[in-house]
Amino acid sequence: MAAMLAIAPAARNATAGEEVKRPWVELIAIDGSINPAVANYVEDALSAARNEGASALVIRLDTPGGLLTSAERIVKMLLSAPVPVIVYVAPSGASAASAGTFVTEAANIAAMAPGTTIGAAHPVSETGGSIKGVMGEKIMNYTVSFARSIARERGRNEQWVEQAVHRSAAIGEREALEKHVIDIVAPDLRSVLAQASGRTVQVGGRPVRLELADATVRRFPMSLGQQVLNILSDPNIVYLLLMAGLIGLYFEFAHPGAIFPGVAGAICLVLALASFQVLPINVSGLLLILLGVTMLVAEAFVTSYGVLGLGGVVALTFGSLLLIDTSKTNIAVNRQIVYGVAVGFSAIILGLGYFLARERGKVARTGPEALIGEVGVVRDAIAPGAPGTVFVHGELWRATSDETLSAGTEATVVSVRGLEVTVKRAAPRHSA
Questions:
Q1: Class of residue 141 by CB neighbours under 10 A (exposed 0-12, middle 13-18, buried 19+)
Q2: How many domains does one find in the chain?
């Protein structure tokens, strides 16, 4: 009996030791553009995986592309990662387009879910076409060399990666597996880990055998700061913030003292300007937007018969389309948003300008100026050089006139000077 009691704790300790030694992988999710926030996220995840003893880092990827500079940074981290890295393009319908292609190819193990795509890494100009001239040739040659070096380092299909850059080639998961662009096709993460087990990869110049079939999965979330920066890296969000900021400030200047539009507009504008430090902004596009806004505002104060307004809409639209420098990224402001904002922004500015002009043209209804044109009744007789009094607008005023007006005569106010009004005999009223 004593022997059995002695064996039981030993068995429990052995089981606990096995649980401690059970392999685990760290999982991060990139669902959106490749940008500086995502690069920081990957860097933090790699550091945590190394410090906490993860068997591998898994990146679940679904991206339309992003900044080439951020992709380059992520690729460098993955090629020199201290732990094995698995990039899994998922779920079904996801893609690893443009910059995502480079990130996928840089992983030790590249996997895709059924119904996913990879490729289309051709650099484009601000208008969405090919970059012409010497600069276009330089960018193309560099991108091709960058892509081939990644594929060569990981022993994958260099020729296809070159086609993805040169011809925007894109393929599905089955063709990618056949052409040795990726290593695994799997319906879920557990299947990826099972298929990766038993493979040997190079980590830090040394071979590492993966044993991940029964590995547990721990998620590594983005920090709050990274989440905010990731949101501000969306060109559509940045564009809407810029427009909201300009409208808020215009409304505040047009109606001083409203306060809220000015505060909200200033916050939106500062956030948009902060995003300019992340996204590659085309200065020409930004200047066109500012010119368009200026022309639209000027239309409210200058009689141009619509020339300034039309020019402002055109400048605003073209500036919006050129705002993001797409020679450095394949992401840009959605054109439907651009057209919608251009029409809406123009309507708001011109509408406010119309109401301001209409209010300026109205006769004053308060203060001394409101008395001009009012008809009152003379209380004390008025003669040239001899002021009297007139009751007008519910008040008794000192009055002068160039003609003699007896008490009880109706008189029309011609002008106001201080507390004295000048009147003349009112025109006779005709009954219908």
A1: exposed
A2: 3
